[in-house]
Amino acid sequence: MRCMNNGNRNRLSLRLLTLVLLVGAACDAPAAGRVLQRLEFIEPHMGALFRIVLYAPDADTGSSAATAAFQRIKALNRIMSDYDPDSELMRLCKQPAAVPARVSNDLFDIIRKSQELARLSVGAFDITVGPLVRLWRTARRTHTLPAPEAIAAAKQRVGCQKLKLDPSRKTVTLLAPDMQLDLGGIAKGYAADAALAVLRQRGIRSAFVAASGDIAIGDAPPGMAGWKMGIASPAGDDKLAATVLLRNAAVSTSGDIEQFVDIGGTRYSHIVDPRTGLGLTDRLQASFIARNATTTDALATALCVMGTKRAIKLADSLPDAAAFLVRPGPNGNETTASRRFDKFRAPASSLPKK
Fold first, then answer.
1. Is residue 213 part of a domain?
2. Which of 79, 133, 73, 121 is nearest to 103 (CA)?
3. Minimal CB count within 10 Å: which of 154, 180, 293, 318?
4. What is the domain range of residue 121?
5. CA-CA distance, 277 to 343, in Å (whole number)?
6. 270 in a domain, yes or no?
């Protein structure tokens, strides 16, 4: 575990979401009669850097809490990885079709939440997309499009209706043969939420956990209104498309800044539309704000699949949620915000000085 104090770094790029530190946030700040230290910890998990920033009464307390949070993330990865053939998720995928399999509380919980978000997004988010994701992983590696017949065959094993859950017995039934569940669009957000919960159990309230582009946020830093987060431009430069101020919330950004492949002059995203079986070619970047990172992780991906109009409609239909969409155009970025997004915008007076 790497620990960084406030003097080490003022800004760290996290895939699509750049964290902009609060102006004047010091390592020591008074809170409830105590002096709290700002501490930062980084570890690699789930194929990404997990970053924890917290305020604690002393370094030992903060380090102990961060260690416990990282241990929770590591345990979840052992359950949910689709790269580890021995993970609980992969063992579930090896079960015969139509045979109920009892799973752990964590695996059942994330699958249950995934099914709820699949229904909410009308299939734009779907963890049964694994067979298609594997085709496109090969496509990115070989720079060759998947064969139409391969996509058609994979689609026969995709669809949230092919999963059956029994909450009373904590069982999951795969209703089609050779299904492959892929939690890559929700696991990091789920892990960030779980890690933040561990910090809270340890008495750490002012903190955030960033898992690449998915961030779970607790109470604001001492003396501050919230944590300032900058949404990066999809152009891949150092510019910010927007800046938000958040506390006790979560934000995720999804798009193709880093993960894409160019085949025959067409840019295909790593995000696959479960309904068509194709990698996205519309360069839409979506940021989603909600109460927890499990939801924002899944729905940021779903909004990219849904397109601007349907994405904004979904965001506007949910309480305490907002979306910010960015599409690079010939004359610069084209942005669209849901009606509640301004509620989360950082005031211009609080933006960092250049």
1. no
2. 79
3. 318
4. 88-174
5. 36
6. no
Please indicate whether residue 23 or residue 203 has the higher confidence score (pLDDT): 203
pTM of the entire predicted model: 0.89
Number of domains in the chain: 1
Q: What is the C-alpha R_g of the chain? A: 20
Evaluate whether 251 touches 294 at the Cβ level (below 8 Å).
no
Residue 155 belongs to a domain with what CATH number? 1.10.3980.10
156-201 pLDDT, tens digit each: 999 999 999 999 999 999 999 999 999 999 999 999 999 999 999 9
Any idea what the Cα angle at residue 88 is, between residues 83 and 92, rounded to 5°? Answer: 100
Residue 127 CA: distances (Å) to CA of 80, 161, 166, 180: 12, 11, 17, 8
Q: Is residue 161 part of a domain?
A: yes
Contacts 24+ apart (CB under 8 A), 37-40: 37/62, 38/5, 38/6, 38/221, 39/3, 39/4, 39/5, 39/63, 39/66, 40/3, 40/4, 40/5, 40/6, 40/8, 40/9
Long-range contacts of 328-332 (CB under 8 A, 24+ apart): 328/233, 328/234, 328/235, 328/283
List of residues 6+ apart from 175 with CB closer than 8 A:
97, 98, 161, 162, 163, 164
Nearest to 244 by CA among 322, 139, 354: 322
